[in-house]
Amino acid sequence: MQIKVLDVGKNRARIIFPGEGHTFMNLLTDEILKDPQVDVARYTMEFQFSDPELLVTTSGDRDPIAAIKDACTRIVSSCDQVLVNLK
Asked: Which CATH number characterizes residue 9's domain?
């Protein structure tokens, strides 16, 4: 998966996910929002076939990139558990 980092600050990150759709972006934003130090996790798609842009803002010392990485790790862990249970 390719990403384009548009902006990263102390408590804010904007990233474009080329080629991704609503399914992945909904999963990702829902998982990011489980972090109590995340204030905002949302994505926008300007047009139906445009690339989604993710915005994450955090509070305190929470790094927004770390919050995204942690959410991705939890998603992978859930998928791994499904694969184990299907064997």
From this structure: 3.30.1360.10
- For 34, phi and psi rounded to 5 degrees? -75, -15
Q: Which residue has the higher pLDDT, 72 or 87?
A: 72
Query: CB-based burial of residue 86 (10 Å sphere; 0-12 exposed, 13-18 middle, 19+ buried)?
Result: exposed
Which domain covers residue 30, as residue numbers? Answer: 4-86
Residue 69 to residue 86: CA distance in whole angstroms: 26
Q: Residue 44: which of 20, 62, 68 has the closest Cα?
A: 20
Question: Structurally, how many domains does the chain consist of?
Answer: 1
